[in-house]
Write a structure and sequence with these properties.
The two termini are about 60 Å apart. Strand 1 and strand 2 form a beta hairpin. The chain is built from 4 helices and 31 strands. The chain has helices at about 15-20, 40-90, 95-110, 375-380, and strands at about 30-35, 35-40, 120-125, 130-140, 155-165, 170-175, 185, 190-200, 210, 215-225, 225-230, 235, 240, 275-280, 280-285, 285-290, 295, 300-305, 305-310, 315, 320-325, 330-335, 340, 345-350, 360-365, 405-410, 415-430, 435-440, 445-455, 460, 480-485. Helices cover about 15% and strands about 35% of the residues. It is of the alpha/beta class.
Length: about 500
């Protein structure tokens, strides 16, 4: 094979001599120049070699450019998603700089589809006043054809900033940090939380659980661990690996139980006040009800303004009984405290506007050792009162997991549409297994509980219409909605 730099010897003869030789045929690679025949094959090869290098560089550069453009788009989408997630965390009244940074970084890394052979750096900055979050990502990419031009790698850099206008409140927080299904939805259960956030502190891989046709809808949904269930069970899909949030109400002062207060004699058909059994329509005064209250047999009970303490016993409404009250707070203390609103009950309650429980519709003592399920207790306590027309409640569904003792607060009522205020149950399990909407007629409802478990077909509404009520939203769960402005 001939070298481009060692061309063959070219024989040059006068044209006339070539013509005189009758058997000489001119090869196609010879040309006439100044009366001579010249072999041009070496020159063509040189030109082709030089052109091929240039063409290869141009084609390869186009391939690298396409790859870099696609990767830049991927990274930009990841950084956008991360800053938006961080911005939504900023809206939470209980957010910290560390929690915002953690959410932002985790979301970027989960969305960026990182490869081990590509050095990647991520910088996340949160404004001191918690009004914005900035993220910049840089990735070193090896070029496939850049070596032809002396460029072996290049850095792809993208950035985004999310600015918060106002703050979004936290409308539901489950405090249990390790149980599976701390936030658990089953069957056809729904949670609708427009304009606010659902948050689970559980680090369990199934800290959030969505089964069957259940659905949770919110502005943002965040799990410190993972979630189980189809993406269709959550809208939007939960962010995972979120930092745990502290109890936003841990410093809130709570009522202290007072001396025991009996029900009035007119509240019981037999005048028996010893068991706090209310089977007559009556208006009750605030105070400490030792052994709790049991409202039954179609009794319509109205609560006067104030605080009602259920000490060492549950609050039970069943057998078509009803409980209504405005400017009232319910406080639960003792191992046997809890709540049961049975199927045929009617509930309409609004939290106090002033005082120690301002904004708190329900709250509980922060310690418990051996709690009693009120469903089990009420069946054994008043089993003789039950009838086929008003059957006993079914056993309380078991949680997916427990990491410590929890009081049980169960709502089966198909008419509990007004529950205005904040429900604060730091060592409680809120169980809702009604068939109809719950709290949908409340201006707002906030839930902070160890666990929130929904079964059957309820739709729990966590509204945020603050201007529609004089009931204040407790500091820590946030009263102001907000918007995010994204810039790149």
């Amino acid at each position: 094979m001939r070298s481009l730099f060692n061309p063959p010897q070219v024989k040059v003869v006068p044209l006339e001599e070539a013509i005189d030789e009758p058997r000489f045929e001119v090869p196609s690679t010879l040309s006439r120049r100044d009366g001579f025949l010249v072999d041009c094959r070496g020159g063509v090869a040189i030109i082709f070699g030089l052109s091929a290098t240039l063409l290869l560089g141009l084609v390869g550069g186009g391939v690298d450019y396409a790859r870099l453009s696609y990767r830049r788009t991927q990274l930009q989408s990841a950084v956008d998603a991360g800053t938006l997630a961080g911005g939504n965390t900023l809206k939470l009244a209980s957010s910290t700089v560390e929690s915002v940074q953690g959410v932002t970084e985790q979301t970027v890394r989960d969305s960026a589809h990182l490869l081990p052979d590509r050095p990647f750096t991520l910088t996340v900055t949160v404004a001191k006043d918690k009004t914005s979050v900035f993220a910049r990502a840089e990735e070193t990419v090896r070029l496939a054809f850049g070596a032809f031009l002396g460029i072996r790698t290049t850095v792809v850099a993208v950035q985004a900033r999310a600015n918060v206008v106002g703050k979004m409140r936290l409308c539901m927080l489950t405090l249990d940090q390790s149980a599976p299904g701390a936030f658990n939805l089953q069957t056809r259960a729904e949670v609708t939380a427009d304009g606010c956030s659902l948050y689970s502190n559980s680090s369990n891989v199934k800290g959030m659980f969505g089964g069957d046709s259940a659905m949770a809808k919110a502005q943002t949904i965040c799990s410190a661990g993972g979630y189980s269930g189809a993406r269709a069970n959550f809208a939007p899909p939960p962010q995972t690996g979120c930092p745990t949030l502290g109890d936003p109400l841990k410093d809130r002062s709570l009522p202290v139980p007072g001396s025991c207060m009996p029900i009035p004699a007119s509240a019981n058909s037999k005048g028996d006040t010893s068991k706090n059994l209310v089977d007559q329509s009556v208006t009750l005064d605030p105070g400490t009800y030792c052994g709790g209250l049991h409202i039954t047999k179609k009794a319509n009970v109205t609560l006067r303004s104030g605080i009602y303490v259920m000490k060492d016993g549950p609050l039970v409404v069943d057998q078509k009984g009803s409980l209504t009250g405005t400017d009232v707070g319910l406080f639960f203390a003792g191992d046997q405290a809890g709540l049961l609103f049975d199927k045929k009950s009617t509930i309409s309650l609004a939290a106090p506007t002033t005082g120690i429980m301002a904004g708190l519709l329900m709250a509980e003592d922060r310690t418990v050792s051996s709690p009693v399920d009120p469903t089990t207790a009420i069946i054994s306590f008043v089993g003789a009162l039950l009838s086929p027309l008003s059957p006993a409640p079914s056993p309380t569904p078991q949680p997916l997991g427990l990491t410590r003792p929890l009081r049980t607060y169960r709502i089966i009522s198909d008419d509990a549409r007004t529950m205005l205020g904040t429900i604060y149950l730091p060592v409680g399990r809120l169980v809702i297994d009604a068939d109809k909407p719950v709290a949908d007629q409340s201006a707002y409802t906030v839930i902070v509980a160890a666990q929130v478990n929904l079964y059957e077909g309820p739709n729990l509404y966590l509204n945020a219409n603050y201007d529609a009520t004089s009931v204040p939203v407790p500091k820590g769960v946030g009263p102001i909605s907000g918007k995010l402005l994204l810039t790149q």
